[in-house]
């Protein structure tokens, strides 16, 4: 599967819209597109999935390692893969878009905000091309997409100023209906604020699909990889699960931050039973519970009124393994205070109260070391993940923590992972390549 990376000069330059337009342009040219996202993002991939009609693959060297990243790429399915970068091309102390492109040996097309520039767009792109020689990565910056660029003289000035080494790959017109609204954790999800098809089609027509196809190339992947190939099912109820354990996975507007690879890994060993706590669903019969991240702070009243959290508390007290990540941690706490000052009773499994703050409290790749055997790691094992949250937890003095923080910020400074019974609540999002979900499933099966 050929691929290319759309890297930006900075955050906010319009990489997501350019990626969606590229997906649509390739589809209009008769190609099947596999979207992907550099970095640990959950939100941008939701837009990719809506436009492409298939899950977006997560590519992050810190979470997965280079080999895991390549395996995840290889599990995609399509004629061409469009990888949206994160932040600026070279930004990221633990992982970067440049690192993802280098790990796969994919070419980079630079997305430049051209709303207030013309020849300077070319100068910016030329600087990014030259800077590749100052990095440890073997990187090819080969083209430019001019974001928020008008046609006519504006486009011509950009195109004519580019050196021969940088192909002009088209533009994204400056239109209000080509801007996705955002909030405290990033853009609105794809199902909440989708771009209108007419606007997306117009943007796709201004891209040079022929040049993008010429630029895309096959990545560097292991010669033999037993895990490579198209991803299978996610093990949802109705699949042939036999006597496999049942994992209840919260899946609604409050809990939506799940990597496709996580669903696949759970589905390889268990029957996945989705339920919607914020919509009033009760906890289904299960052998384990996974509460992923999301927006419980936006649905706290519905969660407090529904039956699911009380049932999760009962299951936890009975010894059912329960894993809560970020939003899941918030739901497992005793109480949640929202941005408007309302306080709502949560599951009460973990001895903490959580409050939404105005500024983010953590945004980083993290590394944890297990103090003792935990739900997702053996004692002494290191676990890599990612944290991004606006809430802070007030933790009881006798609370037990599963991890010491080697890198990043924990729930309580240098401690992370509140644990009670066989329940773990953590701000850390992990990828299945970390082995965390295999450890969780081992615990469910024990």
TrEMBL record:
All copies of domain CobB/CobQ-like glutamine amidotransferase, residue ranges: 246-435
Comp. bias (Basic and acidic residues): 234-246
Keyword Protease: no
Gene3D superfamilies on file: 3.40.50.880, P-loop containing nucleotide triphosphate hydrolases
Cofactor(s), names only, from the UniProt record: Mg(2+)
SUPFAM superfamilies: Class I glutamine amidotransferase-like, P-loop containing nucleoside triphosphate hydrolases
One GO biological process term: cobalamin biosynthetic process
One Pfam family in the UniProt entry: CbiA
Region (Disordered): 215-246
GO MF annotations in UniProt: ATP binding; cobyrinic acid a,c-diamide synthase activity
Annotated keywords: ATP-binding, Cobalamin biosynthesis, Glutamine amidotransferase, Ligase, Magnesium, Nucleotide-binding
Entries under NCBIfam families matching the protein: cobB, PRK01077.1, PRK13896.1
Name of the molecule in the record: Cobyrinic acid a,c-diamide synthase
Source organism of the structure: Halorubrum coriense DSM 10284
């Amino acid at each position: 599967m050929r691929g290319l990376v759309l890297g930006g000069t900075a955050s906010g330059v319009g990489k997501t819209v350019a990626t969606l337009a590229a997906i649509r342009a390739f589809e209009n040219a008769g190609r099947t597109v596999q979207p992907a996202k550099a970095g640990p993002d959950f939100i941008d991939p939701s837009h990719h999935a809506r436009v492409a009609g298939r899950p977006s693959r997560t590519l992050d060297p810190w979470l997965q390692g280079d080999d895991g990243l390549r395996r995840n790429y290889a599990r995609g399915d399509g004629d061409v893969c469009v990888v949206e970068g994160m932040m600026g091309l070279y930004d990221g102390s633990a992982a970067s878009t440049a690192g993802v492109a280098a790990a796969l040996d994919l070419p980079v097309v630079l997305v430049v905000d051209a709303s207030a520039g013309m020849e300077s767009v070319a100068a910016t792109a030329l600087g990014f091309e030259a800077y590749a020689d100052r990095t440890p990565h073997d990187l090819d910056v080969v083209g430019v997409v001019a974001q928020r660029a008008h046609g006519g003289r504006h486009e011509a000035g950009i195109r004519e100023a580019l050196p021969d080494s940088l192909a002009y790959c088209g533009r994204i017109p400056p239109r209000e209906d080509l801007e996705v609204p955002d909030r405290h954790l990033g853009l609105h999800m794809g199902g909440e604020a989708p771009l209108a098809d007419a606007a997306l089609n117009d943007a796709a027509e201004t891209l040079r699909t022929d040049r993008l196809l010429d630029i895309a190339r096959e990545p560097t992947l292991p010669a033999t990889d037993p895990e490579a190939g198209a991803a299978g099912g996610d093990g949802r109820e109705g699949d042939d699960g036999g006597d496999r354990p049942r994992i209840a996975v919260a899946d609604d507007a409050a809990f939506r931050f799940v990597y496709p690879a996580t669903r696949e890994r759970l589905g390889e060993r268990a029957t996945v039973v989705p339920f919607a706590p914020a919509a009033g669903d009760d906890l289904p019969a299960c052998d384990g519970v996974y509460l992923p991240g999301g927006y419980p702070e936006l649905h706290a009243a519905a969660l407090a009124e529904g039956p699911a959290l009380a049932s999760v508390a009962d299951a936890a007290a009975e010894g059912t393994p329960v894993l809560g990540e970020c939003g899941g941690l918030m739901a497992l706490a005793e109480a949640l205070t929202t941005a408007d000052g309302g306080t709502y009773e949560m599951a009460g499994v973990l001895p903490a109260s959580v409050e939404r703050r105005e500024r983010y409290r953590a945004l980083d790749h993290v590394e944890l070391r297990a103090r003792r055997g935990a739900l997702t790691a053996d004692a002494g094992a290191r676990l890599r993940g990612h944290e991004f949250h606006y809430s802070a937890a007030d933790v009881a003095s006798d609370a037990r923590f599963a991890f010491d923080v080697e890198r990043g910020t924990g729930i309580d400074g240098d401690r992370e992972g509140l644990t009670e019974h066989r329940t773990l609540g953590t701000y850390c999002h992990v990828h299945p390549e970390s082995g965390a979900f295999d450890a969780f499933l081992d615990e469910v099966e024990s």
